[in-house]
UniProtKB/TrEMBL annotation:
GO terms for molecular function: flavin adenine dinucleotide binding; oxidoreductase activity, acting on CH-OH group of donors. It comes from Paenibacillus stellifer. It holds the Pfam family GMC_oxred_C. This is Glucose-methanol-choline oxidoreductase. It comes from the Bacteria.
Amino acid sequence: MPNPLPVPQPDHSKTFSSPVSKLEWIPLTSLEKMSQTEYDVLIAGTGAGGGAVLWRLCQQWGNNGKKIGVVEAGDLLLPTNLMNVQTMNHLDYLDIAYNDPQFAIPIPGTKLRQVIALGGRTLKWSVVSPRMYAAVASRDWPVPEREMELYYSIAEQAMGVTDYYTKGSPINEIFLNRLWSSEYAEAMNEPMAADLEPTKYGEIHSNVFFSSIAFLAQALNPRPYDLAVLARAVRVITERGRARGLQVMTPDKRSFELKAKNVVLCASTIETPRILYHSGIRGRAIGHYLTNHSYAIGKATFNHKDYPYVLGTIGILIPETGERPFQVQIGGPNGYRFYHDTQTPFKEQLEMNIAGVGNVESRFENQILFNPNVRNEYGMPEAQVQLTYSDADLAVLGLAEEAVKHVSSILQTPMVSLNLQEALAGDHESGTCRMGRDPDTSGTNPYGQVHGISGLYVADNSVLPFLGAANPTLTTVALAMRTADYIIRSSM
């Protein structure tokens, strides 16, 4: 049994400092005012799940008089995905996304990172948005395949998922044909949440790469909602088995009770189960079944002179299948995966990434432990992370490693490095409030409602019953929209 690793509490002097704090680029509401309102739905968290719930509620309800409130523990940081910032290139983006304390709150001894800001982790994600193989192929997935297909389609349309970002790139087409001529007939252009519509008729499309800020902005069109930042949800208020609101605290430790008929927790895989634990909601599965991806990350090179002068961008996905419990992502050229410059320097030797992303088993013993004897500055229990690979996980990682080498050979791009990532790393942690039908093995029902508590829902990565090999964001958004529709039906 490994030693659990503590999750640090953020330093507000760093985490919540905002470069645009004097400019409220989205309407904000004070907690004092919000405490005087009873909300039909109160959402905690503004990442992919929280943004999707809000967008769907506003879209479906319109301006019907229902009251929606949103609280975010972080501050205003960026009004868009970091990749949309004009001064960014791919290398600058990676440096800021994984080293800047405003975008990456590290967990000592691990490579896990938290983002606490309006928009959450979608401020810096890669926007690669495949459907999850297990969500439409596994008998154990708690949502019917037909419903998953429907909500995937809704989510893809709302996020602007497309395979056109790399379509037509000369080098991408060359590599795809090499893969198709080998054993990878499923290789495809990466599906990406990227708005490629041109600006015309005065309609501006300046946010190419998706973040949940787009959901927050679009939700303002059909109806108003109340949003408070620097407002940390610490406890769910319940009465006779039903959610009645949230206790929320500010960085200066002022406490407010916000009333609501329905509460949706979208605070993250670590913070959502911590809130539930602190609220006395301690189902057997809550905090357990922590899951992440395994990674075999390769770097390969190629000579520009061997390819057309205009290379274009590389973005290829070899998806997970029933016979392949991992996926392979191919991206590059490094430094120019995306760029804002009018010209790129000609370099003879260019690098690219070939990454194998492995399926990790969902196991009870992988968990977030909560220590009631050690409290953070908000009086909440210390969270400790415990996650290891099983023998089966290591076997899958080995297969992914061999696939990366094989793909490098097929593409005729010599491998210069290949690293296997440790278990406590990455950005896709999930499963700690997994949905299912059995309260002994799941934290919520198939609609995201916490077992035993009416009106309390979870809609972030923590509800995923298992992870597969795909980026979880699209699946989390699809499930969050489905949860929103369930809340709407239940409120009639």
